[in-house]
Design brief:
alpha/beta; 9 helices; 9 strands; globular
Length: 320
């Protein structure tokens, strides 16, 4: 018997490449960054070798995920050009790029739009109180800087993914305020594809001394988020951060319908290996759900893409 559309959960067959791990922010919960100047940048030659290997692995999305170079750094232009060139290379080799590299200028977003089918930036939380704690040494985590990215993405018609990081010192009221802000941006521009609800999961590098977000609380957060967000925004959860199979199914039942990019490594949470698609498919089928692949751009946004990007997306839609 075919599975109904209501019983479908999606994921993106993805691979993450990191132009550089160096970052001028020092968020105390981070397990990703290295100090500026301490991380070699990914070369185009090395990226090409990776992409060649991926051609036989049915990978669709190339997630370009980078540490941040300061907007006024002498290296900013070279950093941005490396990101742009990696997107172009990924496209040339048949993949669909999705870039998430921190706050960008209007001009940078406008240029990356031409070589990305979608882009993203986590709001994390919009509460300014975190600037006194986990974001004390993270200048780009100013709430107004990050929320402005959602506005610019809307004005530029960029299909966009954003989300919340749960358990970094915020309150429940902060969750609802941040979700309401996302919903308001979407009401105005209709550009938000997904909202990620990411539970804080301690890693081995971070200095932030706090317990993991209680995964048993996640279904109720998802259910409330589903009430706040408009119906055409998909709620995404990272399955490697919800270890218990029953609670993963509870999250799906509560309203999460996407599991994000599934690849060999979660670069942001390297201590938590990804469950791969076949294993996830078995877990979901036990609860009556069907796991199906998707592209990094949802069909309702195809008309926002350039002719070149549309052609590439069409080829992938025929495969999926």
């Amino acid at each position: 018997m075919p599975v109904s559309r209501q019983n479908i959960v999606t994921y993106s067959p993805a691979y993450t490449i990191v132009p550089t791990y160096e970052c001028f922010n020092r968020c105390t919960y981070c397990n990703f960054r290295t100090e500026p100047g301490k991380s070699p940048w990914l070369t185009l030659g090395a990226a090409r070798e990776i992409f060649l290997q991926l051609k036989t692995q049915n990978v669709c999305e190339i997630l370009i995920l980078s540490g941040e170079v300061h907007p006024h750094s002498a290296k900013r232009e070279a950093w941005f050009e490396r990101i742009y060139d990696l997107c172009t290379l990924a496209l040339d080799m048949g993949f669909l790029p999705h870039t998430n590299v921190g706050p960008l200028s209007w001009a940078e977003m406008q240029k990356l739009k031409t070589v990305n089918v979608s882009m993203g930036l986590m709001l994390e939380q919009l509460t300014p109180q975190l600037l006194n704690t986990v974001h004390r040494h993270a200048p780009s985590k100013l709430p107004q800087v990050r929320s402005q990215q959602l506005q610019w993405a809307g004005e530029l018609k960029i299909p966009f993914t954003t989300g919340l990081l749960l358990g970094i010192g915020e309150t429940e009221e902060n969750w609802w305020e941040t979700l309401t802000a996302i919903s308001q941006f979407h009401q105005r521009y209709h550009h938000i594809q997904e909202v990620i609800l990411q539970p804080h999961s301690p890693g081995t590098v971070q200095s932030f001394d706090a317990p993991p977000f209680n995964p048993h609380q996640l279904p109720e957060v998802i259910a409330k988020a589903r009430e706040i967000l408009l119906p055409d925004i998909t709620i995404q959860i990272p399955p490697n951060l919800v270890k218990d199979e029953n609670w993963l199914l509870a999250c799906i039942t509560a309203g999460a319908r996407d599991l994000g990019g599934i690849g060999p490594k979660d670069e942001v949470n390297p201590d938590y290996p990804h469950l791969q698609a076949q294993e996830l498919r078995g877990i979901l089928q036990s609860g009556g759900w069907d796991l199906v692949p998707r592209l990094p751009v949802y069909p309702q946004f195809d008309h926002w893409l350039s002719a070149e990007l549309t052609q590439q997306v069409k080829r992938w839609r025929e495969r999926f």
